[in-house]
């Protein structure tokens, strides 16, 4: 009996090590069930780094891994580079492969980065405002497969704030006026706005709390550390009417009243911070090792604050409740402020070099004064459409930082998109850089990407992607907030420099070379006709091509108007409107590009008619005028514009038609009033909180041929 007991005790650690892979087995069953019975997972013992080994042994793919996250990376490596299969935010290529390919010689993949970070605050709204648990389950599977091991997780912070404010004497109405609507959480947590789009119904707050709890459990199973929102002093702007503490009025962020900052050196700070962290512990547990939160984000006022002492106090409260935790700070604009960094224990800080495709603050600021940092890419703003990404710069800068004077402080890489439903090669490459030691040549990488994206090699697709790499995905220096924008989505005017206030209409690539690459890509249609991912990419590339052509037609219209040539103006404006209708036809061929897809997601996320209506209003406001009703502070309109079927023909088309009628009347000598788009846009949102009638779909290749022949 004693021998049996001893044997069981010896076997127990082995059983526990084997069980760590059960969540990865479940992931495979969800995403590639055809592969599930062909894999054996084995733990790698005595390894100090994250590593996975792949090899076929006795007709089974044997995966030796240091942990669940590395095992998931091994699965993805095998899927991509042996099965030519992949998941993405723009379609999946995961159909069965039989027989499964052999790995005849052992393949080793080792982490090159301690942290592989994912998600911007903004991603939670530009993409994830109305995610259900199945959406999050899929998201977390994708994250694990791509080796993410640290992820911003702020889905359930409303419940924490609600409970905290109740404890300090706030009424339910006062709490409701502070917490924002479901599409604006990011800018609330970043300290930019309060109340807008709300109130958030209790059922939504409760549902987000439950989803956050599910997410954190699944993340723990898959080896992904959650990053929750820390308490950095943000408080409702109404608190100064209730408290004698030192509270710094933060003024406005554009048209929005900002929450205030409770001075972290004031005794009241530690009291409220204690309540806040206690509520996090009650809801989400004590095993949390990362907290985000940026004081004075995007223009916050620091007058009267000792920043060094403030930083010390913020970190001290965090450490009191979560000893050993790391404070994650955004390297964005002048954040993190140097004076605040001076007060921190930097061994418990991680700075995100947020906008790495443009900045090199990690170098200019000497690794943020010798602070651990990660190199990140934003790559898009507002989840605006457009194919874009400085792919070779991603590879070059990460490699350069790894081999720089500050290499000891470079702790990883991260994807920080404002919205993630776009540009899949950006995310694939960035996260692979967390598992590649070598200096990646994207010309070689992109060929393999096209193969696993579509399921097989094709000469036309391969040639096209080399063309895309030299145009839309090239790595020219210079400041640019995302892709060149589409003139079709501009608020009408004769002079349009950009569609969103900080975007650009400029094409800094050879548009003729890009057009040739798109035509080459279209030639792959016969060979890839059964590929859903090819279809999505074809739509997207042709959409971009048509947007480029639209700018030329717009310029013809402007020239005709300025020269008072009514006949040419009518022809050019009619052609421009036809292009918008044609864009709608193109996008309507796939649900990914339809407004109704996202409106339905918002509707399904609501439990009552009132909730569904508020969700719809939040969604439609965000993608049109964004928010607030102050004409002198209207800079956010079109910041998150979308080229979606149902939006092109119901919003952008009539807005341009109104404008062309106005210009035509001017040419005809009629005295008419200029359209009031500020009011028109808000009325459109109020009148369109419903699903659009479904339109008949034209055959995709018919629409593509028409556009390519223009």
UniProtKB/TrEMBL annotation:
Domain Alpha-N-acetylglucosaminidase tim-barrel: 116-437
Residues annotated as domain Alpha-N-acetylglucosaminidase C-terminal: 445-708
GO molecular-function terms, A-Z: hydrolase activity
UniProtKB keywords: Hydrolase, Signal
Gene Ontology process terms (BP): carbohydrate metabolic process
InterPro entries named in the record: Hex-like_dom2, NAGLU, NAGLU_C, NAGLU_N, NAGLU_tim-barrel
Coiled coil feature spans: none
Sequence ranges assigned to domain Alpha-N-acetylglucosaminidase N-terminal in this UniProt record: 23-95
Endpoints of the signal sequence: 1-18
One Pfam match: NAGLU
Cited PANTHER family: ALPHA-N-ACETYLGLUCOSAMINIDASE (PTHR12872:SF1)
The protein's name in its UniProt record: Alpha-N-acetylglucosaminidase
Organism: Mucilaginibacter rubeus
């Amino acid at each position: 009996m004693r021998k049996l007991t001893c044997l069981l005790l010896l076997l127990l650690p082995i059983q526990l090590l084997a069980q760590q892979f059960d969540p990865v087995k479940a992931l495979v069953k969800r995403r590639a069930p055809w592969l599930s019975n062909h894999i054996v997972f084995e733990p790698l013992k005595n390894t100090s780094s994250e590593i996975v080994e792949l090899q076929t042994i006795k007709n089974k793919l044997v995966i030796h891994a240091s942990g669940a996250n590395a095992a998931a990376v091994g699965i993805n490596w095998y899927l991509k580079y042996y099965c030519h299969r992949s998941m993405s935010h723009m379609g999946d290529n995961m159909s069965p492969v039989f027989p499964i390919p052999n790995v005849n010689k052992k393949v080793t993949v080792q982490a090159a980065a301690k942290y592989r970070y994912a998600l911007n605050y903004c991603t939670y709204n530009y993409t994830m405002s109305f995610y259900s648990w199945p959406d999050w389950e899929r998201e977390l599977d994708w994250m694990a497969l791509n080796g993410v091991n640290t992820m911003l997780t702020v889905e359930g912070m409303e419940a924490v704030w609600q409970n905290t404010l109740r404890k300090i004497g706030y009424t339910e109405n006062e709490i409701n006026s502070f917490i924002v609507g479901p599409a604006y959480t990011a800018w609330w947590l970043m300290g930019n706005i309060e109340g807008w789009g709300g109130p958030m119904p209790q059922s939504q707050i409760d549902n987000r709390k439950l989803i956050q709890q599910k997410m954190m459990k699944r993340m723990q199973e898959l080896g992904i550390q959650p990053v929750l929102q820390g308490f950095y002093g943000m408080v409702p702007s109404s608190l100064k009417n209730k408290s004698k503490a030192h509270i710094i009025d933060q003024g406005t962020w554009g048209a929005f009243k900002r929450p205030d900052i409770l001075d972290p050196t004031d005794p009241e700070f530690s009291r409220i911070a204690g309540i806040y962290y206690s509520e996090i512990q009650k809801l989400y547990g004590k095993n949390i090792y990362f907290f985000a939160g940026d004081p004075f984000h995007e223009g916050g006022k620091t007058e009267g604050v000792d920043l060094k002492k403030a930083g010390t106090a913020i970190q001290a409260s965090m450490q009191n409740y979560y000893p050993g935790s790391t404070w994650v700070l955004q390297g964005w604009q002048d954040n993190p402020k140097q004076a605040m960094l001076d007060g921190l224990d930097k061994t418990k800080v991680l700075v995100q070099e947020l906008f790495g495709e443009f900045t090199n603050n990690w170098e200019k600021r000497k690794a943020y004064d010798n602070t651990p940092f990660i190199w990140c890419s934003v790559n898009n703003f507002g989840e605006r459409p457009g194919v874009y990404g400085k792919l070779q710069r991603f590879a070059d800068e990460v490699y350069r930082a790894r081999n720089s004077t500050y290499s000891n402080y470079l702790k990883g890489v991260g994807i920080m998109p404002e919205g993630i439903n776009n540009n899949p090669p950006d995310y694939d490459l960035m996260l692979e850089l967390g598992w590649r030691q070598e200096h990646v040549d994207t010309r070689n990488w992109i060929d393999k990407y096209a193969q696993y994206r579509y399921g097989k090699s094709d000469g036309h697709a391969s040639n096209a992607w080399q063309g895309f790499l030299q145009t839309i995905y090239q790595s020219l220096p210079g400041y640019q907030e995302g892709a060149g924008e589409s003139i079709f989505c501009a608020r009408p005017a004769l002079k349009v420099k950009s569609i969103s206030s900080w975007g650009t209409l400029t094409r800094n690539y050879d548009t003729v070379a890009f057009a040739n690459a798109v035509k080459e890509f279209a030639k792959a249609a016969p060979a890839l006709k059964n590929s859903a991912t090819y279809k999505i990419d074809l739509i997207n590339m042709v959409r971009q091509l048509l947007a480029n052509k639209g700018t030329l037609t717009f310029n013809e219209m402007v020239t005709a108007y300025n020269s008072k040539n009514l006949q040419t103006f009518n022809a050019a404006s009619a052609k421009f409107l036809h292009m918008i209708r044609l864009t709608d036809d193109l996008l309507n061929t796939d649900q990914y590009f339809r407004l109704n897809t996202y409106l339905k997601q918002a509707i399904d996320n609501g439990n009552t008619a009132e909730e569904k209506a508020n969700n719809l209003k939040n969604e439609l406001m965000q993608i049109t005028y964004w928010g607030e009703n102050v004409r002198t502070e209207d800079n956010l309109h079109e910041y998150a514009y979308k080229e979606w079927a149902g939006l092109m023909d119901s919003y952008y088309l009539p807005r341009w038609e109104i404008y062309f009628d106005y210009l035509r009347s001017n040419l005809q000598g009629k005295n008419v009033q200029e359209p009031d788009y500020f009011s028109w846009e808000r009325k459109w949102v109020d009148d369109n909180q419903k699903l659009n009638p479904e339109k008949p779909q034209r055959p995709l290749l018919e629409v593509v041929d028409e556009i390519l022949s223009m």
